[in-house]
Amino acid sequence: MPEGDTIYRAAERVGAALTGRRLSGVSGSAPPIRATSSQLTGARVKRVRSAGKHLLIETDANLVIRTHLRMSGVWDVYAKGARWRHPIGAARVVLEHDETTVVCFSAPDVSVDSPVSIQLEINHLGPDLCADRFDRDEAVRRMEAPHKATIAEHIADQRVMAGIGNVYKSEILFLERIHPEAPASLTETEIERVVDRSRQLLMLNRSRPKRITTGETRRGAELWVYGRGNQPCRRCRTKIDTAWIGDLERITYWCPNCQPSIPTGHIDRK
Ligand SMILES: [Zn+2]
After folding, report:
1. What pTM does this model have?
2. Measured between alpha carbons, how far is 143 from 176 in angstroms, rounded to an integer?
3. What are residue 78's DSSP bridge partners?
4. 141 domain-assigned
5. CA 239 to centroid of ligand 1, rounded, Å
6. Are residues 259 and 200 both part of a single domain?
7. Does residue 131 sit within a domain?
8. 148-205 pLDDT, tens per residue?
């Protein structure tokens, strides 16, 4: 599941392959790429970076390529002529120079536009949890003003903090012992803890190919609750519960014992 940490590493890989290079070929099935391939061919790549779950490729042709991988997209880097790991029909963006071919497969969301227009597309994003500099105060401010009903939806809202996806949403709430269906309005202490935990987990995994929240590197022991429906909680052995919450596109996981249904923080607010 591509989340902020995955995209951060993808930007590093793609950046290492393309930065400073002139694109000799630009193709792929994404309509914005087809529309601009003649302008992009011959352009030099100035910088590749991530912004939350978006990957941005800046060129000297006054054009930026932006992709969002959603559930299943992936960025791959190949030596010229090497066999691709995914079908050619899924290639949405293909960028080539003499030695390397960089391919984005299956990304449903691709745009190519001027730097100003691309900035407008990502302006809504909250502080980036994987950026070197993280504006904690701003993240706290945005946590205090929920657009969503439940805390699970609120922390997955990219306007609050950029980078949290389905895995981190469940893991962060488990670690902070907050039920995912709790109201989005947390206490000040809870907000600070959620923000700090989010930053800590994303930064821990920013350079790690395999995501770990438990501190355990053993296969199958890396996560607390995500993907562990009906399995025993690693802390208390209660069966992990699952539900579709609000308009989230994926299942949320939690331990009904470690994450009580009415968080203590809400009782004294009523
Ligand atoms: Zn538990």
Report:
1. 0.93
2. 15
3. 101
4. yes
5. 8
6. yes
7. no
8. 899 999 999 999 999 999 999 999 999 999 999 999 999 999 999 999 999 999 999 9
